[in-house]
Amino acid sequence: MRGFRVELQQLSKRFGQVEALRELSLDIRPGELVALLGPSGCGKTTALLLISGIYRPSAGRILFDNRPVEHLHPKDRDIGMVFQSYALYPHMTLRENIAFPLRLKRLGAKEVRERVERVATLLGIAELLERRPAEVSGGQQQRAALARALVKEPGLLLLDEPLSNLDARVRLQARTEIRRLQLQLGVTTILVTHDQAEALAMADRIAVLAGGRLQQYDVPEALYRRPANTFVAHFIGDPPMNLYRGQFTPEGLVGEVRWPLPSGGRPPFLGEGFLGIRPEDLTVVPAEAPEGIRGRVLLREALGREVLLTLALEGGGQVRALVPGGAPYRPGDVVGVRYAIEALHFFDPEGRRVGNGDAPVRGT
Amino acid sequence: MMPRTRFWPLLAFGLFVLSLPLLAGYLWLLVSAFSFQVHGLKPMGGLTLEHWRFLLEPIGQRPPIGRVLLNSFVYALGVAFLVVLASSMAAYALSRLAFRGRGFYLGLVLVLHAFPAVSLLIGIFYVLQLLGLFDTLAGVILVQASLFLPLGIWLMKGFFDAIPWDLERAALVDGASRWIFFLRIALPLVRPGLFALGTFVFIAAWGEFILPYTLIVSSRAWTLALYLQSLLGAVDLADYGLVAAVGLFYLLPVLVLFLVGQRFLLTIYGGGVKG
Question: Please, is A64 exposed, middle or buried when counting C-beta atoms within 10 Å of its C-beta (0-12, 13-18, 19+)?
């Protein structure tokens, strides 16, 4: 199986007055797994349905291996697709479901049987082929749907929230398995999801969408360390980045919070803008430490390995900080907060990132 | 499920009393069909199979019963088949395809459903006359089927509406055309609806009287309803024993079908699809 190179050029889709997708341009390398990530209504499913050929674009082009396909019927695009609901045909057995695309290609009975059994074995559902979808578990249905999508050996695999109907434990396992299979087969894959953990874990690159527009298209680490705008900054990362609006002065930010820069640091620009810092890039220290800012612990949430503290800052406003599990701080305690200048993200008044510096992977 | 309350016997008794007049009618039919004479519901002069002679020999100038029975089956089956075929296709289109005037058409179908068929009789008479279909079974079948179509289309549309869009999208990606999706995925999925509609229409057409009565003149195209009517409105004095026997005979297929098909009919009246 060899994956397509997929190019989207200024792809747009309107439904009446609603612009569901605005000028989406993406370049996806052969064999790459790209996630379309965004909140519901961001246009990611619309994009997938455009690529599959179920919707016609209002404008723009779709190229598979430099070949324009936007005028092609879905059946002529050589794609496989897995739906959130799996969309298995309820009146057919799993075997008939998986064989359906091959039957429509009018392949011989022997070849159909061999290919169905090969892909079913690959996905570990060979024993279930005579059952109907309602007679197998959710995870098995999901595999059957994947088998049906892969049996044609498509050049492009489209996954529409394929994991969101699975329970948490099976989901983690399915995530790993889909990725392993995708790497093994080398099929170019587009994954639509609203779950950033899923996107970060599975994708080579992630396209973050909001309001029908592409916000950023990059590898997971870059999205995390160099978010292109305040939307991505807030959307990627859990718990989300602390973001404050205010005026930058040579000493730091003055606004919802007073946020001085560590000594020697200067903001990249002065005037209005946003300051962001990730909870995991903050270091909480006992209050007597001289540097940084001071706050009082409002809330302590144990997350297992780590503890999430919500602090009320001395100058007003709140900040969330992620500290190691053993941290002794209790609600009511007064603490100091330290951070490195590299950990700060600066955004202009429109929310665009300023400065190209990398934020460190992990706080000091 | 029956509510298992302590009022249950009371409820059953109440329903029984309410149904009594109807039950008496059926009882009369049963008793009369096998008795020489009846006074009220009481058989007089013993039991007999004499009234069932119509099964063996033609009554007066009337066609043999086999012919009439066949006509009735052709009529009811033909109407049911046409209605199921046409309404499933029309309903799929109305449910799934976007085309100009779809909303208007849906509204129109609904209005037609509310239209009393009898008011169309004269017009239909002219149209059939023009097409050379007057006084033929085929003609009445067409008319009867088209009168059931609004109901059939709306009913089937409900069933098609319940099929998730994702199934259709999956089929398109799998390489199916809309037509293949309709035949291989949608139709099997709405099968309960097809059976329900078919059974319902068959029973309704089997019992239909006014259309065949108006549009069929010659006795070779008679259905059982017309045969029965001819016995009632005969120039000679009506033979009520014979009428009862034919009536009972007329009832039997419907009774059988209802026993077999009530599962399907419940999906219409209950309005739900159970997979």
Answer: buried
Q: What is the pTM of this model?
A: 0.83
Residues of B in contact with A53 (CB under 8 A): 172-173
Q: What kind and span of H or E run contains B261?
A: helix B240-270
Does residue A272 contact residue A349 with C-beta atoms inside 8 Å?
yes
- Residue A161 CA: distances (Å) to CA of A8, A45, A89, A193, B167: 20, 9, 18, 5, 15
The answer to whether residues A69 and A63 touch, using CB atoms and an 8 Å cutoff, is: yes
> Which residues 77-136 of A have a C-beta within 8 angstroms of B?
79-81, 83-85, 87-91, 100-101, 104-105, 134
**Average pLDDT in the A316-340 region?**
89
In this model, does residue B274 exceed pLDDT 70? no
- Give the up-direction half-sphere exposure of residue B203: CA atoms within 13 A in the CB hemisphere: 18
Instruction: Return the sign of the alpha-carbon dihedral for residues B117, B121, B127, B133.
Output: positive
Dihedral angle at the C-alpha atoms of B28, B31, B34, B39, nearest 10 degrees? -80
pLDDT 10s digits, A201-226: 999 999 999 999 999 999 999 999 99
Residue A162 touches chain B, beta carbons under 8 Å: no
How many angstroms away from the CA of A33 is the closest CA of chain B? 20
Best CA proximity match to B126, nearest among B232, B244, B214: B214
Closest-CA residue to A26 (of A204, A159, A202, A162): A204
**Per 3-state DSSP, what percentage of chain B is helix, strand, and coil (rounded to 5)?**
75, 5, 20
Q: Beginning with the edge strand found earlier in the chain, give each strand of the sheet holding A334-338 in spatial order.
A: A283-286, A334-338, A293-302, A306-313, A318-324
Total Cβ atoms within 10 A of residue A80? 25
* Residue, of B180 and B230, whose pLDDT is higher: B180
Report yes or no: A150 and A79 within 8 Å, Cβ to Cβ.
Answer: no
Q: What is the DSSP letter of A352?
A: B
CATH ID of B74-238, from 2.160.10.10, 1.10.3720.10, 1.10.390.10, 1.10.150.120: 1.10.3720.10
List CB contacts of A311: < 8 A, sequence separation 6 or more.
Answer: A284, A295, A296, A297, A298, A318, A319, A320, A321, A335, A337
Chain A residue numbers with beta carbons less than 8 Å from the beta carbon of B169 are 49, 52, 54, 74, 81, 83, 87
CA B186 to chain centre: 25
Query: Can you say whether residue B153 is alpha, beta or left, with left for phi > 0 and alpha for psi between -120 and 50 degrees?
Result: alpha
Which residues of chain B does A100 touch, with a Cβ-Cβ cutoff of 8 Å?
171, 174, 176
Residue B275 — pLDDT band, cuts 50, 70, 90?
very low
* In contact, A83 and B169? CB cutoff 8 Å: yes
Closest CA to A347 of A277, A287, A262: A277
Domain residue spans of chain B: 74-238
Looking at residues B238-260, what average pLDDT do you find? 86
| Cα distance between the two ends of chain A | 45
| Count, residues in chain B | 275
The Cα–Cα gap between B156 and B68 comes to 32
Structure tokens belonging to residue A318: 């709140």
Helix (H, G, I), strand (E, B) or coil at A301: strand
Taking 60 as the threshold, does the pLDDT of residue A361 lie above it? no
